[in-house]
Each structure stands twice: as C-alpha cells, then as structure tokens.
Amino acid sequence: MNAVVNPIPARHKNVNRAEVCDANFTEFVRDWNDTPAARGAHPSAPITSDSLCTREDFVQLFDSQLISRHLDLMARVLRVKNKVFYTIGSSGHEGNAMVARLTRHTDPAFLHYRSGGFMAERFRKLPGMDPIMDSALSFAASAEDPASGGRHKVWGSKPLWVLPQTSTIASHLPKALGTAVAIEQARRIGHTLPIPQDSIAICSFGDASSNHATAQTAFNAAAWTAYQQLPAPVLFVCEDNGIGISVKTPTDWVRANFEGRRDLDYFYADGLDLATGYEGVARAVHHCRTTRRPTFLHLRTTRIMGHAGTDFEIEWRSFEELMAVEATDPLLRSAAIALETGVYTKEQLLARYEDFRAKCFAAAEAADRTPKLTTLAEVVAPLAPYSAAKVKAEAQRADYETQRVKAFGGAEKLPEKLPPRHLAIQINNALHDLMAKYPESLLFGEDVAQKGGVYTVTKGLHKAFKNARVFNTLLDETMIFGLAQGFANMGMLPIPEIQYLAYFHNAADQIRGEAASLQFFSNNQYKNPMLVRMAGLGYQRGFGGHFHNDNSIAALRDIPGLVVGCASRGDDAATMLRTLAALAKVDGRVAIFLEPIAMYMTKDLYAAGDGEWSFAYPAPDQAMPLGEARVYHAEANDLVIFTYGNGVTMSLRAAREIEKARDWKVRVVDLRWLVPLNEAQVAAQAKTAKRILIVDEGRHSAGVGEGIITAIAEAGFGATPFKRVVGADTYTPLAGAAFLVLPGEADIVAAAQSLS
Ligand SMILES: Cc1ncc(C[n+]2csc(CCOP(=O)(O)OP(=O)(O)O)c2C)c(N)n1
Ligand SMILES: [Mg+2]
Which residues have CB less than 5 Å away from ligand 2 (the ion)? Predict the structure, then answer.
C-alpha cells in the first residue's frame, strides 16, 4: 500500500514567502480553538506561571514584535513600487526585543540588521518617539530619516544610543568592545561619560558572522581583557537562526564554540518564546552589568521570509523545509501565549495585527512623500565637516601652560626653549603637548608605553601620563582601531599608533569601512574622532624589508572623509599634529599622521654635520593650516618639484645639482597634506612653473603622484613639460636592492635633465 502523503496546501506553494508567513499568522489565530483562560489578570502577574516576563512585559514585547513584522511585510510590498529600498528583514528575530526591554536606552547598542524588534522596544524608553515613522523614513531613503538622513537603511538613533552600523558583518564587534572598555577607562582618567557609569555595550550579530575574523578578534580581546581582571562590560548577542544566507551553520556549533570559554561568559535564551526566553536574557544582562565581564548571549532565533526580499528561497530549498522553518515563527508562539493566557481574544489580536499593518503602510506612504537627497552637496554634507576658523583656533589654543610645564618636567625644559632637534624628538615633544592639552586623550598601541615604541618616538609619555592614559594593547591592529572607536564614542580623544604602515592594511576596514564612515551614515550625529599615528614609508637603511618600509598609501588615498598628513621635519610635525588633533576635536574627523621612519633621525640636509634638518620646536600657539604646503625657493620657476616625506630632502639636494647643471632655479613644494590633496594649491604652483617634476616615493599605481598629475592637467596646465619619479609597482626588497624600487636623488636629477 502506498504511504499517505500529505499534499502541500496550495497557499503554501506561493513563492512569495512573506505572503505565506502573513497568512500563517491570521490563519493561526483564526483557527485557534482553545478556550481562553480567565481574563483580567494583573499586569504585573507573570505571563505564565514560571515566567519572569509579566503580562505587561509581554503585551509590550508582542507589540514590538508586531511592529517589526509589519515593517518587514510593508517593505516587501512597497519595494516593488520603488517606495522602499531595502528588504533585509527581522522576521524570526523579533525576540531580540527582550534584549532591548531588559537594557537601558543609554546602553550603547551596535546592532545586527535584524533588529526591528529591538528597536521598536527601545523606542519605548523615551517618550514621544515613534518607531514606525522613524523606520519608514529610513526604508524610504528619506532625507528626513533620523538615523542616516537617507544615506543608508540602518537601525540608528542618537537619543536612543543606537549607533548606525555598516552592512559589513562582524565589523562592529571591535568597537562595541572598545566602547565597553572605554566606559570603564573613563573612571580611571577622570573623564565624564555621556552615559551612566554602569552602562554596558550591546552588540548583536548572526550565527554565521560569529565565525568572522573580525568577530573572533573581539571575542579574543574581550577574554584577554577579562583574563587580566580588567572590566569589559560588553553583551555579545549572537542571534542564531542556524543559517547565513544559504549556508547552514553546523548543528549546535554556536553553543559548542562558545560555551565554557574561560573569560567569555556564556548564556542561552530562547528568542522564539517570550515567556521562557525572558529569564535567560535577564540573567545575561544582569551578569554583564554587575560583573562587568564580557558576556555571550546565545539567542535562539529563526529566519523566515528569506535572507532578503531578493532571496527566493524556493529556488534552493524544498517547500517542506520552508514550511518547517516557518512553523517556528516566534509570532505564532507569541500569539499562542496571548490567546492561551487571555491577553487577547482572537478578534482583538487580529484587530491589533491589522492595526499595526495599517500604521506601517500609512507611515511608509507618508515617508515616500518626504524629500529625498537630491544634490551631491546634500549627500556629502556630513562626510568631512571642516570648520576652518574653529579648527585653527583650537589648534592654536595654548591655555595649558601648567599642564605642559608639568609634562616636560619644568619651565626651563619646555621644548621651544631648547635647541633645534630632529623629527623623532619633535614628534615626541608634540605628543607630550597634546596629552597635556587634552586630559581626555589616550595614547596606545603595540610597545608604545614603557619601551616608547620601536623607534622611541613615544618615550617618556608613559612616565609622564601614567598607565591609564598611555598603555600597550594586545597585538591586534583591528582591536587597536576598535578601541579607538570605542574611546571616541565615549567622548575621549584616542591617539592610537600603528607600528608600521604595512600593518594598517591588516586592519584597514576598521578605518575604511567603519570609523571614516560613521559621520556619513549617521548624518553627522555620531562622530569617532581620532588621531592615528602610523610609521611608514621606505629608505630605512638599518631595518630593511618590505614590511618595515611599506610605501603604499593608495589604501588611504581613497577613503572618503579621511585626513592624512605627512611631515618631513620636526617643526612641521608639531604644528601638523596640533591641527590634526583639532580636526578630531572640533569636527570629529578621523585624522592620520604618517611618519616617515627614515626621517626620524635625520639631522642634516646637504652634508654630514650641517644640522640643516633640525628645527626649533614651534611654540604651542602655532599650527599649520589644513592643506597648506611648504614651498622652498618660492620665487624659482624653471623647475617646480612636487613631493612629500623622504622626497623633500632628496629633492632639495637634487635641486642643488640641477641648478648647477642647468642654470635653473628650482622650487620644491612639500605637499605635507596627502589626503585630501589640495588640488587648488597644486594648480597654483603649477601655473608659474616652466617645467614640473613629481617626486613620489609611493607606488607607481594609485600613488599621490597620480593625484598631482590629475590636478595639474585638470587645471589646464597639462601642456607644461613634466616627469614623474616614482616607486615601482612592487614590494620592497631587503637591503640595498630596496633602492632599486624607490626613487633616488640621481633619478630626480636625471629626470630633470631629460626635461627640455
Ligand atoms: C564581511 C562580509 N562578508 C559578506 C557579507 C555578505 N553577507 C551579508 S549577510 C551574510 C550572512 C550572515 O549570516 P548570519 O551572520 O548568520 O546572520 P543572519 O543573516 O542569518 O541573521 C553575508 C554572507 C557581508 N555583509 N559582510
Ligand atoms: Mg544566521
């Protein structure tokens, strides 16, 4: 006899799973045939006999779930009408509303993209806020979207401490941990936090994302911190739906991987069931807040309606499998609880369901009628704010005499009273000054404390400013940037060091994707100001090889909003560092100071012992305007050399040779500011040039030189004879061979000679 096969009901064969899940809910409620329990129980009574969740908790959480669900359903419908531009939903994850309910709106939250339930719930924490309208504005890419001003569909809210995140999965874990560390660090340096002292940082992500290197970095650093008995109150919430797009997570992998770790405390909660899950979430939150230890909450979720609206699951999964997943819909469970416990009658619940649907659609239609971003100027307005006058005033502010006298160990030791010195010493002096000027600044990185860095550039700072402000981190550049973002989020001024430029590339996403994008994606509501120091570029004689002589700055050149300065001499370093710090303080900018290692100890220019590359320390009220070049021999115009970094001294020496050989007068322009390139200034210098040389120690492709040539050509001076002397497109080899790939003085002279 044939086995009886249950046919799949026709409505379940719909490829539009949003319609199926929607109908599942109404059918589930309509078909409910239990007699409801007695109604009218007290709101503070437990929703079920052994639950921590009260009836009032339940009612509000369920509402948050319904809001989230109807935003998803609305998005699927209105996407095709071009009224909504994003369909990655929260369906199946709505239980994360419990995390919001059990935490505070002042606990900074770094959220997974499936956080609709969390957001709807957090909106309750402040009066007068409307989660539906705010979300609808974001879905519609409205210029009035309070999260990003129409730049990104993202969960975010300034008053609710939800910092908008990028779509790069796991990239937010390091900064969430950094924020947790910062909450504690504030007390140690006497900094006033913008949030209560016992706040925790919340960070949610998916099960597949928990495997990502950037996530693992944060788990490791959290454990590394807790292992030393240092507080790190971060609540990692892994929303485990068992799948990442189409790849299933091995059964029980999240539990197996995270349970029982020594310094990452594991909790489990069923996010599919408000009645039973609430306690697990409450325990995890309480643990994190009271012990200040990194806490891992494994929250069971499910994923219905596919990864996004574009994910036609039916193309790669069977109907049976989809139906099995859809049967785990947490809203069906909430409906069952509501009906079983008499919170709602069937009719009341259906009416409530439809009420939220109507509100979401009405909000979306209203959002569609709001203005959108219509000009490039509007789009980029929050990208790179620059208040020139305020930055100048801040950079020149010198009202910290007492602090600097203390930092330098006496008035007679103030560096401007001492003889001229080389770059490394003047950077060190400038850092002492910045630390004295900004009590909220922190200097950290690998080996920067007692040792003073591999080139002793930070020597003495640890002694002067002590452990809480000058410290070594674990060896992990991603986490160094995660800490920097965290400190910045809490209102401090981080001054991290990346030991070598080559190792920036290892962690670049934390600047490229994260730090540099925060102002843009939050419509300038959130900022993570920082001053990053990176030692790099080539020509070191004592310490060779590519990784200590990396000359590729292409990876920095195209990061929107970034500022990169590169000083070739000590006095410029001091005035530039002041401006970079002021840019961070005043406009929230991510500022990078690139230090040419080979110039650290350079004291002479033309001949050994001439001392012509040692410069007096500028008084603290002096600062370099952003974008301003230093021009040597400004009146000369037979040949104009554009350069920076090591190229400056090479060009000045080569200029002497060229002047002797050709009877030319040679001007040398040290650009100093590499990102953004001051194109107007390049054009102005090119205008009066009879010939042009570009001396770029970076790579042939995508180096600064390309930008200079473009600026010259676009300004209409492309007909001026020019040559570029530039590094080869290769890694830098060891020892003397390095000089084969980098421009040298002879190359500069030869290139000049070849110009007619
Ligand atoms: C670094 C990175 N790689 C790839 C992607 C593309 N992507 C987006 S979501 C996703 C799967 C994430 O799965 P999971 O972490 O389990 O979260 P879920 O969507 O299941 O909630 C992938 C591969 C991305 N956004 N970021
Ligand atoms: Mg998943």
Answer: 206-208, 241, 243-244
Q: Buried (b) or exposed (e) across 206-218, using 16+ Cβ within 10 A?
A: bbbbbbbebbebb
The verdict on whether 505 is a catalytic residue reads: no
Q: Kindly report the CA angle at 193 between 187 and 196, in degrees rounded to 5?
A: 95
Q: Whose CA is nearest to atom 14 of ligand 1?
A: 206
Give yes or no for a contact between 446 and 475, defined as CB atoms under 8 angstroms apart. yes
Residue of 168, 169, 257 best suited for mutating to test ligand 1, as the one with most atoms within 8 Å of CB: 169
Which atom of ligand 1 approaches the CA of 241 most closely?
20
* Phi, psi angle pair for 652, to nearest 5°: -65, -40
**What is the CA angle 704-622-559, rounded to 5?**
30
Ligand 1 pocket check for 167: Cβ under 6 Å = yes
Task: Assess whether the C-beta atom of 207 lies below 6 angstroms from ligand 1.
Answer: yes
Helix and strand totals (H; E) in the chain: 27, 19
* Distance between CA atoms of residues 221 and 297, nearest Å: 17
β-partners of residue 238 are 205, 298
Helix (H) or strand (E) holding 173: helix 173-189
Residue 643, number of CB atoms within 10 A of its CB: 29
What separation in Å is there between the alpha carbon of 77 and the centre of ligand 1? 23
Taking the C-alpha atoms of residue 441 and residue 262, their distance in angstroms, rounded to an integer, is 32
CB of 483 closer than 8 Å to CB of 178: yes
pTM of the model as a whole: 0.96
Is the Cβ atom of 422 under 6 angstroms away from ligand 1?
no
Inter-residue contact 192 to 177 (CB < 8 Å) = no
Average pLDDT over all residues of the chain? 95
**What DSSP designation does 109 have?**
E
Contact 59, 45 (CB under 8 A): no
Q: Rounded to the nearest 5 degrees, what angle is found at the Cα of 646, between the Cα atoms of 643 and 651? A: 55
Q: How far is the CA of 244 from the centre of ligand 2 (A)?
A: 4
**Distance of CA 112 from the midpoint of ligand 1 (Å):** 10
- At 1, the pLDDT band (50, 70, 90 cuts) reads very low
What 3-state DSSP class applies to 419? coil
Say which DSSP state 737 is in. G
**Which ligand has the nearest atom to the CA of 93?**
1
| Residue recorded with tokens 């995140």 | 165
Q: Ligand 1 within 6 A of 327 CB?
A: no
Which residue's alpha carbon is nearest to atom 11 within ligand 1? 244
- Rounded CA gap, 547 and 501, in Å? 8
State the average pLDDT over residues 481-499.
Answer: 98
Q: How confident is the model over 631-687, as pLDDT tens digits? A: 999 999 999 999 999 999 999 999 999 999 999 999 999 999 999 999 999 999 999
Return d(Cα 30, Cα 357) in angstroms, integer: 17
pLDDT digits 0-9 by tens, 366-390: 999 999 999 999 999 999 999 999 9
Ligand 1 site, residue 299, Cβ cutoff 6 A: no
Q: How many whole angstroms separate alpha carbon 375 and alpha carbon 356?
A: 34
- What ligand is nearest to the CA atom of residue 306? 1
Whether residue 573 contacts residue 624, with contact meaning beta carbons closer than 8 Å, is answered with no
Single out the catalytic residue among 70, 152, 172, 548: 548
Interatomic CA distance for residues 693 and 725, integer angstroms: 7
Radius of gyration of the CA atoms of the chain, in A: 30
Contact call for residues 93 and 102 (beta carbons, < 8 A)? no
